[in-house]
Amino acid sequence: MSKFILYIYISFLSLVGFVPYVGSIDIIGPQWFYLSLINLFVSPFILSKKIFYNHCLVFLNKITLPYLIFILFTVVSLFFSLNLSLSFVEISRIFTVFISIYYVTFLLSNSDFNFSNLSLIISFILLLEVLFSFYPLIFFLTQFPISELDVSNLSANLKGVSGNVNVLSADIVFKLGFLFFLFFKSKNIYLKLTSSLLLILSFLLIFLLASRTAFISLCLISLLFLFHAFFSSNISKYKSLLFISLIPISILLYSLFPSNNNSVSSKFTNTTLTETSLGSRIYLYQNVIDYLSFNPITPIGIGNWKIESLLFWKTRMTGYVVPYHAHNDFLELTVEIGILGGLAYFLFFMGNFLYSLKYYYRHQKIIFVLIFSLCLVYFFDAMLNFPLERALSQVNFILLASLSIFYFKLRDEKNI
């Protein structure tokens, strides 16, 4: 029974991107409310289990310790908050994520789930997201020839479930890790063909969205899986060759679209665009560092950088455009909850990287390649954007954290 609850719970969590706006200006509100409702509905089943309360002791380990310290400093920062309403909104989201991680690890630990089935569920959600993104393009091409396509606004029209190109790109690359796992592990010919087709469509979508961060992440995790496949005796070499062949197919399809200044290649080669984007981020990072240099001890309260950043940005403000975030979750958390709290959050990811390498060296299992890849994608996104704010990104974090805790600390090594 727990196995099916796990599958259903993760399915509903992963469908957060399809939550409608219901009259709101920003989709973030309804999505976070949806995640809270999912936790509320699953709570009676999980809390009814007597062993649930023993899970508290199991949950305390070296992997979770930095994250628990981060939660503690988040709570402590409330006493220094400049705007408590902002802090309560932010801390409610953090606890929603924490509860979800606790629930998922509990269900993983107390069910005989099949990881391939879990990957199949995530891959199916990926398929829905990719099709939802391509729908405007498909509709246009059924009405007009491709030569009439306005490629300058193409990426904005393909943002699908996220409402933001960068958020969607990171989400697609993250879920691709599960599809990679399925592709290399599956022996079913139909599943292999379906996963190959979805890989081509996903690669094509990443190219069209033209997000440099996502493109680099995709290249890195592809190399990691290929490295494992080439040196693993459990994976046939033709799968590696098939995987490699899917990339030029995607590029060939991408070449059918008219060239434009918003393509991935243009964003890498356009020096002016690169310097402008990099310059803006460096300025935002410098704002945080400047603030910390004058206030290294006292935090400003979780969620309050939105207010404090105005002191720095007011000289560069154009119209009413104000950056809510520092475009680096680690720096932003450091200024909001203190240096120790920000460091604890950073160490949680470093621990994941180290444990992934340690367990891969010990077992040479593809699951540890997957966990390392998921951590890499999320970490890279957190270094350049603000996934902590986005419910879609936080569902990915829930999966990453839960799988890490389970495979590194809760599961018997003999059964890996």
3D architecture notes:
This protein is mainly α and 416 residues long. 72% of the residues lie in helices and 0% in strands. The chain is built from 19 helices and no strands. The longest helix is centred in the first third of the chain and has 29 residues, at 115-143. It is globular. The protein starts with a helix and ends in a 6-residue tail after the last helix. The mean pLDDT is 88.
Provide tags for this entry.
19 helices; 416 residues; 72% helix
Give a brief rundown of this model.
The chain is mainly α and 416 residues long. The protein has helices at residues 2-14, 28-47, 55-59, 65-76, 84-109, 115-143, 154-157, 165-185, 189-209, 212-231, 237-255, 264-269, 271-294, 305-308, 310-313, 329-337, 339-363, 366-384, 391-410.
In this structure, how is the largest beta sheet organized? none
Backbone CA Rg: 22 Å
First and last CA, distance: 22 Å
Output the number of helix runs.
19
Strand content: under 5%
Binned, the helix content reads over 70%
Mean pLDDT: 88
What order do the helices and strands come in, and which of them pair?
Elements: H1 2-14, H2 28-47, H3 55-59, H4 65-76, H5 84-109, H6 115-143, H7 154-157, H8 165-185, H9 189-209, H10 212-231, H11 237-255, H12 264-269, H13 271-294, H14 305-308, H15 310-313, H16 329-337, H17 339-363, H18 366-384, H19 391-410
